[in-house]
From TrEMBL:
InterPro entries: DUF3349 (IPR021784). It comes from the Bacteria. This is DUF3349 domain-containing protein. It holds the Pfam family DUF3349. It comes from Luteipulveratus halotolerans. The lineage of its organism: Bacteria, Bacillati, Actinomycetota, Actinomycetes, Micrococcales.
Length: 97
């Protein structure tokens, strides 16, 4: 995947720019949760609330953000929080906030 990103950057980058200038651009790219990671985070949040058969009290948005941070090693993006929220709602669990 990294190779595809670098190839994409090279195609749109002006001719003659040193290849070492790609590194700062790569550092700006944010990591996004995979679908499997979203599912795993939701499973962990539900389990912490008492499991699938437990009460359906709202799950803390802060807890979701902490788990996302552990997976991505970065501050959670709003789009990732929204994906976790949507998955939890699909499973019948509201996300606080």
């Amino acid at each position: 995947m990294l190779r595809r990103v670098v190839d994409w950057l090279r195609e749109g980058y002006p001719e003659g720019v040193p290849s070492v200038d790609y590194q700062p651009l790569l550092a700006l790219l944010r990591r996004r949760l995979t679908d499997d990671e979203v599912k795993q985070i939701c499973r962990e949040l539900i389990a912490a609330e008492g499991g699938a058969d437990g009460p359906r009290s709202p799950i803390s948005a802060v807890d979701a953000q902490v788990l996302i941070t552990k997976v991505t090693n970065d501050m959670p993006a709003e789009s990732d929080i929204d994906r976790v929220r949507a998955r939890l709602a699909f499973k019948g669990w509201p996300l606080e906030g």
